[in-house]
Amino acid sequence: MNKSIVIGTTLSVFGLGGLAVGAYQVSSYSQPPEPVYADILQVEAATRTIETPREVCENVVVSQQAPSRDPNRIIGTAAGAIVGGLLGNQVGGGSGKKIATVAGAVGGGLAGREVQGRIESGQTTTSTRRECHTVTDTRQEQLGYDVEYRVDGQVYSARLDEAPQGNRVLMQNGQPQWHAGQSTSQTEPQG
After folding, report:
1. Domain coordinates in residue numbering, the chain
2. Which SS3 state, helix, strand or coil, does residue 108 take?
3. Cα–Cα distance for residue pair 14/50, rounded to 1 Å
4. Burial of 137 (0-12, 13-18, 19+ CB in 10 A)
5. What is the distance between the alpha carbons of residues 39 and 151, in angstroms, rounded to a whole number?
6. Contact at 8 Å (CB) between 157 and 171?
7. Residues 56, 133 contacting (CB under 8 angstroms)
8. How many CB atoms lie within 10 A of CB 127?
9. For the chain, how big is the Rg over CA atoms in Å?
10. How far is CA 129 from the centre of its chain?
11. Can you point out the beta strands (E) in the chain?
12. In b/e form, how buried is each residue of 87-122, taking b as 16+ CB within 10 angstroms?
């Protein structure tokens, strides 16, 4: 056999073989890898309670006993003594009449004092008084959403501005791809 035929055949075999190996390598690199997803385990709304105190005032009608114009009840005592003395004077005669008049005046004075006390205790005045007290208004402020998710058996957590959609999230370069423009806090592994 001719030496040039052997060399040409050998080169062509190696040349074709190199193309076959190169074509295999190009086809294995051109296929994209399988997408990796993380399972979303839990989504909870993150809130905080804000308490705001404020003062509430209202007008209240108050009833109280009217102040006495005669705290010693002199008028009732005097009126009772006069009436009692007149009635006592109508009883008996002679020195008995004097005793009955004095006894009527003393008894009438005590009775008049008691009657005046009862009348004054039932008298009340009403006034309006402004009363104020503090009440606390409470409201919930939305901070975001706390999300737990699992990748390769490891559980992580993140705080998101919006709740994720669905029950899994696409992972790229080891990071979850929540939403375009979605703000998240630092992702931390759980225990």
Report:
1. 1-31, 34-53+138-191, 54-133
2. helix
3. 78
4. exposed
5. 7
6. no
7. yes
8. 9
9. 53
10. 30
11. 36-65, 124-151, 154-160, 168-172, 175-176, 188-189
12. bbeeeeeeeeeeebbeebbebbbebbbeebeeebee
158 exposed, middle or buried (CB, 10 Å; 0-12, 13-18, 19+)? buried
Please report, to the nearest 10 degrees, the dihedral formed by the alpha carbons of residues 97, 99, 103, 104 taken in order. Answer: 10
Whether the model pTM is above 0.85: no
- Sign for the CA dihedral angle at 73, 78, 81, 83 comes to negative
CA distance 26 to 127: 98
Q: Mind listing the pLDDT tens digit for each residue in 76-108? A: 777 777 877 777 777 767 777 777 777 777 887
* Residue 67 structure tokens: 């102040």
Q: At what angle do helices 95-121 and 74-89 cross, to 10 degrees?
A: 150
β-sheet bridge partners, residue 91: none
pLDDT tens by residue, 92-148: 677 777 777 777 778 877 887 788 777 777 777 888 899 999 999 999 999 999 999
Which residues, including other chains, have CB under 8 Å from residue 53's CB and lie 6 or more apart?
134, 135, 136, 137
Handedness of CA 112, 114, 118, 123 (dihedral sign): positive
DSSP 101: H
